[in-house]
Write a structure and sequence with these properties.
Blueprint: H1 8-16, E1 21-22, H2 25-34, E2 38-43, H3 52-66, E3 70-75, H4 97-114, E4 125-128, H5 130-133, H6 138-144, H7 151-156, H8 158-165, H9 172-175, H10 177-192, E5 196-200, H11 204-218, E6 223-227, E7 240-241, E8 244-245, H12 255-263, H13 270-277, H14 282-289, H15 295-312, H16 314-330, E9 339-342, H17 344-347, E10 351-352, H18 353-359, H19 366-374, E11 378-380, E12 383-384, E13 391-392, E14 401-405, E15 409-415
Parallel strand pairs: 2-3, 2-5, 3-4, 5-6, 9-15
Antiparallel strand pairs: 1-6, 7-8, 10-13, 11-12, 11-14, 14-15
Helix pairs in contact: 10-11, 12-15, 12-16, 13-14, 13-15, 15-16
Family: Belongs to the class-I aminoacyl-tRNA synthetase family. TyrS type 1 subfamily.
Subunit structure: Homodimer.
Motif ('HIGH' region): 45-54
Length: 417
């Protein structure tokens, strides 16, 4: 990135690695130094909690507010009834109004930890697009809004094209989603003066649609900015562990398990994750990431403590670190752990988690292993193991995997050749 921004916000996000693309970086920069800018990110209410996959953009909103601007968290009370088809191979299950409201309530609890809501200039706003979508008149909407959309252009967007290229069905309901999201940006600009939509790079087409629509209907100049879609250095989607999603609500994933997820970060990801998921100064992130040997584990603890403090509070982070030390240091977990070394031939295209639990001595039979999983007594890398059908391939075992039965019995599984 050769552009040197004048605004604090763009300076921070470029230095820390948040920026993937922007519709007009220079004009946005000018707007950001001219006064308080409102910007939004939309969140469909598809689950009762947000997960680590959402955390990058939550941190983006946090930096936006810290730099003196106004973040808007837009809850998709309306759009969730349709479902975002972007880069999905199938249609999302449709949720009822009660479930959508319950999910929004759970998600709001997470945002309150990262953003300050209120009536001030740079206080965050919590909005719900059901406010303007639920009452739409279909014929008026088609006439006033639908006429601005070219089907040819909509078919060219990667999110739609990838689905059609695989000859997978794309319902008319889902095809409407991008029109509704574009309309959200128009309404937020009209009602709240919102100048910027931010989101993951998979949302680029939807964001550009909203900018075009607002120019056509209101003749207003607005902007879009995207963040990179993150994968870990071993190629996994960020926010997913072998035990399932890493939720941000404590009642869905304990602060200790959340802390462990960050403590288990791959060495190569430590510096990048510090810049994105904490507020540790960039120079310190680089210094910690450069530590070698076992010292990198100290950097991982700094990372885990900083991320957990933001999400669950300093006390929860300190308690998680203390528990981890108790388990790992005093419980003889670590180098003393019984280790099962498998050959590539034994792993083949994949080996079942039930087999691994038996082979590592944590259960005497497959039946006992399945019961252990069903009774919530099994863990993988300290995260709850709930899927008895889980298969691990050679890539998943490239770094040692820790299996646990109860609180005191542990084993490591790794590739030995």
């Amino acid at each position: 990135m050769t552009y040197h921004p004048k605004s604090d916000f763009l300076g921070v996000i470029i230095e820390r690695g948040f920026l993937a693309d922007c519709t007009d970086l220079q004009s946005l920069d000018e707007a950001l130094i001219s006064g308080t800018v409102p910007a939004y990110i939309g969140y469909d209410a598809t689950a009762q909690s947000l997960h680590v996959g959402h955390l990058l953009n939550i941190m983006l909103l946090r930096w936006f507010q810290k730099c003196g601007h106004k973040p808007i968290t837009l809850m998709g009370g309306g759009t969730t009834k349709v479902g975002d088809p972007s880069f999905r191979s199938d249609e999302r299950p449709l949720l009822g109004p009660e479930q959508i409201d319950a999910n929004i309530n759970g998600m709001q609890q997470v945002f309150a930890k990262y953003l300050d809501y209120g009536a001030g200039d740079s206080d965050a706003l919590m909005l719900n697009n059901a406010e303007w979508l639920d009452g739409l008149n279909y014929l008026e909407f088609l006439r006033d809004i639908g006429r601005h959309f070219s089907v040819n252009r909509m078919l060219s967007f990667e999110s739609v094209k990838s689905r059609l290229d695989r000859e997978q069905s794309l319902s008319f309901l889902e095809f409407n989603y991008m029109i509704l999201q574009a309309y959200d940006f128009l309404e937020l600009n009209r009602r709240y003066g919102c100048l910027l939509q931010m989101g993951g790079s998979d949302q680029w087409g939807n964001i550009v649609n909203g900018i075009d629509l607002t120019r056509r209907v209101l003749d207003h100049e607005i902007y879009g900015l995207t963040t990179p879609l993150l994968t870990t250095s071993d190629g996994r989607k960020m926010g997913k562990s072998q035990g399932g999603a890493i939720w941000l609500n404590a009642d869905m994933l304990s602060p200790y398990e959340f802390w462990q997820f960050w403590r288990n970060t791959t060495d190569a990801d430590v510096g990048r994750f510090m810049k994105l998921y904490t507020e540790i100064p960039v120079d310190e992130c680089d210094r910690l990431a450069a530590l070698g040997g076992s010292e990198i584990n100290d950097a991982k603890i700094v990372l885990a403590n900083a991320v957990t403090t933001l999400c669950h509070g300093a006390e929860a982070a300190a308690a998680a670190e203390a528990t981890a030390r108790e388990v790992f240091e005093k419980g003889g977990v670590g180098d003393d752990l019984p280790t099962l070394a498998l050959t590539s031939a034994e792993v083949g295209d994949g080996i079942s988690i039930v087999q691994l639990i038996v082979k590592s001595g944590l259960a005497k039979s497959g039946k006992e292993a399945k019961r252990l999983i069903a009774d919530n007594g099994a863990r993988i890398d300290d995260a709850p193991l709930t899927d008895a059908g889980l298969m691990l391939d050679a890539a998943a075992l490239a770094s040692p995997v820790k299996l646990s039965a109860g609180k005191k019995r542990h084993a490591l599984v790794k590739l030995g050749d």
